[in-house]
Amino acid sequence: MNIPFNDLTPAVAKLRAEIDQAIGRVLDRGWFIMGPENEAFEQQLATYLGVKHAIGVGNGTEAIQIALAASGIGLGDEVICPAVTAAPTALAILATGAQPVFADIKPDTCTLDPTRLEECLSPQTKAIVPVHLYGLAADIPAIQAFADAHGIEVIEDCAQSHGAQIGDRYAGTLARIGCYSFYPTKNLGAYGDGGAVVTTDEDLARRIRQFGNLGQVKRFEHNLPGLNSRLDEIQAAILQVLLVHLERNNALRRERAMWYAELLDDVSDLTLPTEPTGYRHVYHLYVIHYPRRDALREHLHTQAIGTDIHYPKPLHQQKVFAGCRIATTGLPISEHITQEILSLPMYPHLTHEQVETICESIRRFK
Ligand SMILES: *Cc1c(COP(=O)(O)O)cnc(C)c1O
Fold it and tell me: What's the confidence (pLDDT) of residue 37?
């Protein structure tokens, strides 16, 4: 049985009629940028998350860049982010003219360790960008308390955490600004690029909107060094259909995580994802830790089981970030964990039989 790491076609097929209708509506209208679909989706997303404002943008990377720029962060500033995340988190910081400073993560959750922030601080530190990695929220209460004590901003990277929660609050609404990506493989994934920034701060919302729309305060009045970053009407129409199914799909992901946990429970040396009390994990990725990761991955590959590594290198080891500062005592957890993590197939239409096959194959590995 060939089990791909991911396959979007069944999910698309399931909603095909609704999607065709949504796209058709846009084609019939002949209005493709900044129209009624974007407005409707922004409203739907804001209502779902329980925030005042959602602003559609071009993609998740620019969502972070715009959130930082609208917060007044730029050249000469430093922004702390975890070393284990997708490169766009830190590339967005660079794009504002600021410098990323890499912090270490917690070994159990793989999210930013609030106790390791102090050593990243400098007089130039203006913000922290925690990442809700793999679908699990970072410890925002502790990170926010640290930020408040030092007068700096917290901007959440929610690209992997649509629908994740701490208590009854959604990721993206725990700090002042949340940044979303709708890249096709995300839990809420469009059929192309897309993103959004959410906030309850009126003033910030207005600046975010202006930054993403060429820095215009009104048509042909450019007051800010903005960029062209807008959610197009076709993606906004598709996202309206998909957002309705997000909670159900997240529940299916959680069920599959439970299957894995049951079937891999007693495998020695294998560490499974954790969900701290009060947190709702939405399993964008199902990431296990195993000391002989590369050999296990090769074994699964020979059984036609697709896996991936998120991410094979901590960001401070990427050439583009070579000149960036890191935590003063180093990044031992980030460097260790990137050798051991392995992402197993995880999507709503993954069957129980497939999960059984994957787990049997892991159990057979010696
Ligand atoms: C996907 C992702 C991004 C970037 O989003 P794009 O829409 O691809 O630009 C940023 N941060 C994290 C953690 C991501 O997973």
Answer: 98
